[in-house]
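Question:
Write out your own:
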Amino acid sequence: MAQLAGDGNPRGQRELYDRYAGYLTAVARRYLVDEDCVKDVLQEAFISIFRRIDGFEYRGEGSLKAWMTRIVVNGALHELRGRKLMEDVDRLPEPAPDEDPEVENVPLSVLQKMIGHLPDGYRTVFNLYVFEQMPHKQIASLLGIKENSSASQFLRAKALLAREITEYRKRNDR
């Protein structure tokens, strides 16, 4: 399929798009709240994927998906650049103790919505750390912030999510 898409074959490109568009849209939505921005990033990502797929080197199961995911994440981060991503940490409350709330009775769609409501900077650092499994040093370099700012943003995002999850469970565990 990647070979067909790389040859400029419209059928191969359509197959690749159909197979991965849903997943890559979900990746973009982890970073971007505005649906128009998600669509723009996805469109630009597929243009880039189709242009660069000839240079893609297969490295085993999942490598194509990982490569395309990286393109979408980079596109989303590019979209976020220029916005003030990082909150002024001095004026925010300290995060709650590092306790992970129980999430087993919280639907995935609710968790995704909670993550989507985080401030841009929190959401970006949280997603890069949790989903892309980047260390804070790499996140800091990517976002142009200090490593301890990345760690602080992550802890604050986690604290806000913990508070939201706790409130959700109180409302729904009756």
Notes: The domain at 2-80 is CATH 1.10.1740.10 (Rna Polymerase Sigma Factor; Chain: A). Helices lie at 2-6, 10-31, 35-52, 63-80, 108-116, 120-130, 136-143, 147-172. Residues 88-92 have pLDDT under 50 and may be disordered.
